[in-house]
Design a protein that fits this description.
Layout lengths: L2 E6 L5 H8 L6 E8 L3 E2 L2 E10 L1 H18 L3 E9 L1 E4 L3 E9 L2 H18 L2 E7 L4 E5 L5 H4 L1
Parallel strand pairs: 1-5
Antiparallel strand pairs: 2-7, 3-4, 4-6, 4-8, 5-7, 8-9
Length: about 150
């Protein structure tokens, strides 16, 4: 299979994701690890807490990966893994890896996949700050109700 997607509450493993996308015809593996940073707009961030609708999110991630494979012809394998639960600072919440024949299409595909995940996946987060405040943030999934 050329696509792997997962939603998990366990810490993400970059070696596992990179090993999945290895392919003998690939001249490039592109990897993105999205981590929790310690500040946002001048406020100290202590963690992000992610929630997801797992069944819908998995279907959406699979759809994004299939669309990417159709759009970027030299891509061999794609992995998209997203974490749920509390994700501390400097820890990955999302990993995307793409193997492709040439690096340029791999880079373009990885960026495209990331933007589609942020735009469409049924995954939401609460950003928690050191001052005790928190902000709920969601992706643009206004079409969720029409797909359930």
């Amino acid at each position: 299979m050329s696509i792997f997607v997962d939603i998990t509450d366990k810490p993400l493993d970059s070696a596992e994701v990179l090993n999945y996308v290895r392919h003998p015809q690939a001249g490039a593996i592109v990897y993105f690890g999205g981590t929790t940073r310690n500040t946002f707009e001048g406020k100290e961030v202590v963690s992000l807490a992610y929630e997801a609708h797992p069944r819908l999110a998995i279907k959406t991630l699979e759809s994004i990966a299939h669309e990417a494979k159709a759009k970027f012809q030299s891509v061999h394998k794609i992995a998209i893994v997203h974490r749920t639960g509390v994700v501390p600072v400097a820890t990955e919440s999302v990993m995307i890896a793409v193997s492709s024949t040439h690096r340029k299409e791999g880079w373009l595909c990885g960026e495209w996949v990331l933007e589609k995940v942020k735009e469409r996946a049924e995954i939401w987060k609460i950003e928690k700050y050191a001052d005790g405040d928190s902000v709920y943030k969601e992706n643009d999934v206004s079409n969720v109700l029409s797909r359930t």
